[in-house]
Amino acid sequence: MIDVQNVTKSYGAFEAVKDVSFTVEQGEILGFLGPNGAGKTTMMKMITCYMPPTGGTITVDGLDVITESMGVRKKIGYLPESTPLYEEMGVRDYLNFVADVRKVKGTERTRAMDRIISVTGLSKVIHKDIHELSKGYRQRVGFAQAIIHDPEILVLDEPTTGLDPNQIIEIRNLIRELGESKTVIFSTHIMQEVQATSDRVLIIDQGKIAAQGTAEELKASIAGQIHLDMVLRNADKSKFIEVLSGIEQIHLDDIKIQKNGDIEAALKVDAGTDLREQLFDLAVTNQWKILESSPSSFTLEDVFRKLTN
Amino acid sequence: MSEILAIYRKEMKTYFNSPIAFIVISSFLVITNWLFFDYGDYPFFAINIADIRGIFDYGAIVLLFIAPAVSMRLISEEKHQDTLELLVTMPITDMQIILGKYLSTLVIFAIILGGTLIAPISISFVGDLDSGIVISSYIGFFFLGATYLAMGLAASSFTRNQIVAYIMGIVIIAVFFLMNGMANGSGLIATLFENLSIRFHYQNFFRGVLDSRDLLYFISLIFVSLLVSSTALASRKNK
After folding, report:
1. Are A62 and B57 contacting, i.e. CB atoms less than 8 angstroms apart?
2. How confident is the model at residue B45 (pLDDT cuts 50, 70, 90)?
3. 8 A C-beta contact, residue B148 and residue B112
4. Which chain B residues are Cβ-neighbours of A50 within 8 angstroms?
5. B7, A101: Cβ pair inside 8 Å?
6. Residues A121-148 pLDDT 10s
């Protein structure tokens, strides 16, 4: 549906996007994940025909964003970052204006208005002016204008930024709901968000794709290891380090001595190895008392930090 | 065309949703009529001649301050609110956006023109107005305003600040208006400046003659201003 090939975008000497390629299949929800300034917004601005790429090609349903821009724009519904709206207009006037520009007319307009008002839950504020609306309702108006022409593709730039937790959940549900029938690209810097809503994740950092795949695949890609946090009493630090260095599958991440002399160690253990018995025997031999031993697997957050640091 | 009208309708709603249209229209009419009827060395009531040229002389100056106020928000506010990004990613060309916005300012100006008719109509009851001169003067005044508004729109497309757009608009218009006073004598430069100045071409309409050169001058200025505005919108692409 969306095909991005070797795309580069420079602002003067600064390269915001560097040789990025990816595709989005029809009906897929793709989450753009990346720290602020990673190039997510720039990428979206190029897909939505706001500005052309400096190099490479982007096609949307086979149409080129530069040479067939008008065709591309008709297929896309766009919600830019920070949801720009005409403050001085009424909600209904504004939606009518977007319908006008997008040539949604007559009975089709009536149906479209009914549909978007019910999907986005705007009926309570439809007669108000936009500047009177709360942040959550503003966001819904932004969504409403993006889907008024029933586009095949939705591009949403940080759609949940600045919302309260309840609103965030509502908007995520909305994205999932819309994603059932549409191709959706949305960006965020919140990990749970992509995990909760998207089929596939694309991690962007410093203008490049750092990783892509499903949330599970990404976790698996660095989950060759698991975390193991241990607290030991009656153990000597240097002896402990020496003993552990004898085991190939264990990597010491961090070690601290607590006030009462207990040792607190953060370990990484290669996945697929079961060292429980070995550790128990070592503890017995050295007369260590294991007070705590808690393994944990990696989160998408870890993947993100590892890739973008 | 429907895209242009969509933009036009939105702008008209915005003008009349806020007090801006009423303020702009009423201040022009009040100030201009007051200047014409009751101000200066030759107020209408004192000289007692059925001539409404004063409307257009004073009007040209008052409009220099009023027209940029009509056009100042057109693009700058879209930039300020970031709505421009949404607008230019809809299926509409930059020129259609500019034309729709320009059309709305022309309609505001048409209302102003309608308001000035009070003077010629009332005077025609008590005196003998030369209707030929009145008509050609009105045509001249229309083109003058249309040019001011196009220049104001161009100024608005360069900034995200309405006040900056307003002042820039006044300066651009004033430079073109007064250009004939910038070089003295009869040399090539002086002739060039004179032919480029708005005042020079505007004055010709009061003789009751429509010269295609004057019309062409104003139409060219409007065309160039609109082209500049559209180019300024497209400059996002070369950032």
Report:
1. no
2. low
3. no
4. 85, 88-89, 236
5. yes
6. 889 999 999 999 998 899 999 999 999 9
